[in-house]
Amino acid sequence: MLDEERPIRYRQTIEFVEQQLADWIQSHPEAFPLRTTDGRWREAPANHACDDDGFLVGLLWQFYQQTGLAQWQQAAERYGRLLEKQMGQSPSNSLSRSCLYSHLPWFEATKDRQRRAVIFEAAADVAHRFHHQGRFFAAATSPNVLQISTMM
After folding, report:
1. What tens digit of pLDDT does each residue of 12-41 get?
2. 32, 50 in Cβ contact below 8 A?
């Protein structure tokens, strides 16, 4: 790719992702994507908690920050609240880690004290699981189980 083509390709990529997100939030207002099949996002099963869920919320916040469009903020807040519900129901610390992507931009945009509290709660959960001697984060199921995550 030539250097002068790069900004055009970046813009096309961003526009494609914006359209994908707009389609997703319109057709799946209370579901997170789990995977893609033939280039299309697929819905996660009900009550499926995944550390990648925070990335969707983070993308929505990024688009709000770049465009200032209320639709992105509203969607980010809606999916952020869904993520909070999952955090309360899941023993996995992966959802706590995903708060960095979802709730930190939310707090930065709104200064909402409740979001700040969620961030601190998530950080405390992650810190509590850190195994100092082994220098790893323990899985929620056992204090001595190494948890390997793509988010780390």
Report:
1. 999 999 999 999 999 998 888 887 888 788
2. yes
- What letter represents residue 143's amino acid? P
pLDDT score of 77 = 95
In angstroms, the CA 129 to CA 126 distance is 5
Count of CA atoms in the C-beta half-sphere (13 A) of 60 = 27
CA distances from 9 to 6, 63, 66, 136 (A): 5, 17, 17, 39
Instruction: Output 112-116 pairs: Cβ under 8 A, ≥24 positions apart.
Output: 115/80
Q: If DSSP codes are grouped into helix, strand and coil, which group holds residue 37?
A: strand
SS3 29: coil
49: three-class secondary structure by DSSP:
coil
